[in-house]
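Run: sequence + NAP -> complex structure.
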Amino acid sequence: MTGAAAPVYARVALIGLGLIAASMAHAMRDKGLAGSIVGHARSAETRATALEIGVVDAVFDTAAEAVRDADLVVLAVPVGAMGAIAAEIAPHLAPGATLTDVGSVKQAVIEAVAPHVPAHVHFIPGHPLAGTEHSGPRAGFATLFVNRWWLLTPLPEANAQAVARLEDLLRGLGANVDSMEPAHHDLVLAVTSHTPHLIAYTMVGVADHLRRVTESEIVKYSAAGFRDFTRIAASDPTMWRDVFLTNREATLDILGRFTEELFVLQRAIRMGDGQLLHDYFTRTRAIRRGIIEAGQDTAAPDFGRGAAVPPPAEADS
Amino acid sequence: MTGAAAPVYARVALIGLGLIAASMAHAMRDKGLAGSIVGHARSAETRATALEIGVVDAVFDTAAEAVRDADLVVLAVPVGAMGAIAAEIAPHLAPGATLTDVGSVKQAVIEAVAPHVPAHVHFIPGHPLAGTEHSGPRAGFATLFVNRWWLLTPLPEANAQAVARLEDLLRGLGANVDSMEPAHHDLVLAVTSHTPHLIAYTMVGVADHLRRVTESEIVKYSAAGFRDFTRIAASDPTMWRDVFLTNREATLDILGRFTEELFVLQRAIRMGDGQLLHDYFTRTRAIRRGIIEAGQDTAAPDFGRGAAVPPPAEADS
Ligand SMILES: NC(=O)c1ccc[n+]([C@@H]2O[C@H](COP(=O)([O-])OP(=O)(O)OC[C@H]3O[C@@H](n4cnc5c(N)ncnc54)[C@H](OP(=O)(O)O)[C@@H]3O)[C@@H](O)[C@H]2O)c1
Ligand SMILES: NC(=O)c1ccc[n+]([C@@H]2O[C@H](COP(=O)([O-])OP(=O)(O)OC[C@H]3O[C@@H](n4cnc5c(N)ncnc54)[C@H](OP(=O)(O)O)[C@@H]3O)[C@@H](O)[C@H]2O)c1
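>> structure
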C-alpha cells in the first residue's frame, strides 16, 4: 500500500479477471482503495492464476457467490457476456451496492444489464480509455489508468452520491473522469477506436492474403504504419467481436464515411491529383498537433507515458 | 568520431537536407565513414540550418555545384523532385562516382533518374526502411538506421564493386542491407507502408469532418488506434503526395483488395456474423507474433528500440 487513503469500498467484486480487472485490482491494492477484493472468472484456470498472482483475495466458482456482500461490483467481461451475468447476479446484489462495468460499448451494455438491476442497487456504466493488446490476469498492471480518461454514462435516475463515490475510486486509480450520454460515447469511440481497429484488422488481413508477397517479407520489412496496425490487430478477438456486434450502428456509420472518403483519395491517386492529396494531408496534421497539445500523446512516438526514450525510429515509407 | 574505420567515401554530397540526409550525415560523421560531407537544399533557410547544426561541412546554392568531386551523391528529396535534379547534376558527376537515392518508391525513381545518368557513374537506387513523421534537417539523428533494413534495387548492369562499397557504407550506418527487384519493392512497400499511411490519413480526415463529434472530443478521447493513426497522418504532405502519385499502380491494387476485404467485415457486422469476425481477428494475431519474433518490434508497444519502458498503456477500445 503506497497511499494512506481510507478504502472507498469495503468489498469489491470483480466479475471477469482479465487485463482490466487485474489492473484495477493492482491499483486498488497499491492505493488502499478497497477493503477486500474478490472475484470470479469463467475458467478455473483464470481463477487460479488471479489468486496465485495476488489479483484477488478470494475467488468464487460463480458470479452469484462473488458479488455477495460486495458494495462495489465491476463487470469486466466482454460486452456480449454482460447481460447473462447481470441476470445471474441480480438477486444476490447487496442493497445500496454500486454495479459498474468497463465495457467498450455503452448503449448495448445498458440495454442488456439495466433491466436486471434491482431498485436498491446503483448501476453506473463506465469505460476506461486505457488498455493494451494483451489479455488475461497476468497482463494487468497498476498504472494502466494513470492519466487516462474513464468515461461514465450514468442513467438519468442515477444517485449523485453513488456516482461521486465511484468517481473517487476511479480518480484514486489515477484516471480522469468524465460523463457523457451513452449514445454519444458510442459514436465518439466508433471514431477514435472501434473503426480504426477494424481498419487495422482489415489491412493485416490483406497482407495475409497476398500471394505475391510472402509472409516473411511482410514480417521482415514491416514498416511503421503496418507495424502499428499489426499491434492493434493483435487484440483479443472475443472482445473485439463483441464491440463490433454491439456498437453496430455507429461503426457502420463511420465505416460508410470512411470508404466514401477513401474513394476520394483513391480517385485522386488514379487521376494524378497531387493538389488534392497535398491539401488533404496538410489538414490531417493539425489534428495530430491538437492531440499532442492535449497531452494525450507525446511528440515522441513511443507513446511514452513518462518514459524517457531516445529519438524515434518510427514512421517509414 | 566513435568508430575508427577508414572513410568509405572521400566526399559525400547530399542533395536534400531533411530528416533522412541529416540522419545519414550524423551517422557518417559519428562513424568516420565520409571524408567530407557537403550538400544542397532548395531553400537558403534549410541550407543555413544544415550548416549551422553541423549536418554538412559546406553547402552550395545549386545541386550541380554540390556534386562536383563527390564520389558518393545521395538524392534525399521527395520522389517527384528526383528526375529534374538528376538532369541538372548529370553533367557534373565525377567519373566513377556512385549515385544513390533514398526515395520511398523505386520504379518511378529509376524511370526518372536512370536516363540522365552518364555511363561513367554507378546508379544504385535504395530505400531505408526507417523514418519518423518529422521532417527537415533538425529532425535527423545518428541512430535512425540502426538495425533497420535498407533495401537496394540495383539495375541488372550494376557494378558489383560499387554496390559492395555502398553496402559497406550502409552497414556502417547500422542498417541491414537487402536487394530486390524494383517492382517487387514497390508492391511490398504498398502493403507494409503506403496503403497503411493512406488509410490513416483517411481515418483522421473522417474524424475531422464529423460534425456530431467535436474536434476537442476527438483530441481528448483519442484512444490507441486513432492516436497511432494521427501520428502516421502527421507525416510530410509533399513526400506522401509523391509516394502515392509515383507508386500509383501498386497502391491502387492494394487499396482495391483492402476495400473488398473491408466490405466482408462490414457485412459481417451488419449481419451479426460473430463467427466470421472472431475467426478473422484470430488469424491476424499470427502476423503480429511473426513480427515480434522477427525482431522488427518488441512486445511492448513503445516500439522501443532498446528503450526500457514500463508496461504499456496503449491499445484501447
Ligand atoms: N483490453 C482493452 O484494451 C480494453 C480497454 C477498455 C475496456 N475494455 C473492456 O473491458 C472488458 C474486459 O476486457 P479485458 O481486456 O480485461 O479482457 P480479458 O483480459 O480478455 O479478460 C476477460 C475476462 O472475462 C472473463 N469472461 C469472459 N467471458 C465470461 C463469462 N461468460 N463469464 C464469466 N467470465 C467471463 C474471462 O475469463 P476466462 O479467462 O476464464 O475466459 C476473463 O477473466 C471488455 O468488456 C472490454 O470491452 C477493454
Ligand atoms: N521520412 C521518412 O519517413 C522517409 C523514410 C524513408 C525514405 N524517405 C524518402 O526520403 C526522401 C527525403 O525524405 P525526408 O523525410 O528526408 O524529407 P524532408 O525532411 O522533408 O527533407 C526534404 C529535403 O529535400 C529538399 N528538397 C525538396 N524539394 C527539393 C528540390 N526540388 N530541390 C532541392 N531540394 C529539395 C528540402 O529542401 P527545403 O527544406 O529547402 O524545401 C529538404 O531539404 C524522400 O524521397 C522520401 O520518400 C523518407
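>> summary
Chain B touches chain A through 122 residues (CB under 8 Å). The domain at 184-293 of chain B is CATH 1.10.3660.10 (6-phosphogluconate dehydrogenase C-terminal fold).
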